[in-house]
Amino acid sequence: MFLTHITRLNKQRGFLELDLVLGNWVEENVNSMDENTVKSLIHVLDLENPDLWKWLTGQEQPPEIVSSNPVFLALHKKVMTNLNKHAAPKTRAEAGQPWVKGWDDFKRGRDAPISGNQ
């Protein structure tokens, strides 16, 4: 029951990419989780969405407490494997740079973009 609850929660973060990544990973691994793995998963689930996404996709380096978490490491490996398999490196933002390029927060998309790839 507890693990079913975790599976439902991680699919409803409000951040579609994380919902998909976390939900699929939990479904694939939930039956083999021991107590320590569940605790590591809960720590990952408690992280803020934007930070977690940047860390999982390699845009930023996570803090040591996160980078040593076995669930985070497994998720990061899965995300990077999928990125490397399906997205050419030149289509991704460089480490430390925003992923969405060219968005002008001041115009907020009212007119054609000034620059970028929208």
TrEMBL record:
Residues 86-118 are annotated as: Disordered. It comes from Brassica oleracea var. oleracea. One of its GO terms (biological process) is mitochondrial respiratory chain complex II assembly. SUPFAM superfamilies: YgfY-like. Keywords: Chaperone, Mitochondrion. GO terms for cellular component: mitochondrion. Residues 102-111 have a biased composition (Basic and acidic residues). InterPro entries: SDH, SDH_sf. The keyword Cell inner membrane does not apply. The keyword Membrane does not apply. This is Succinate dehydrogenase assembly factor 2, mitochondrial.
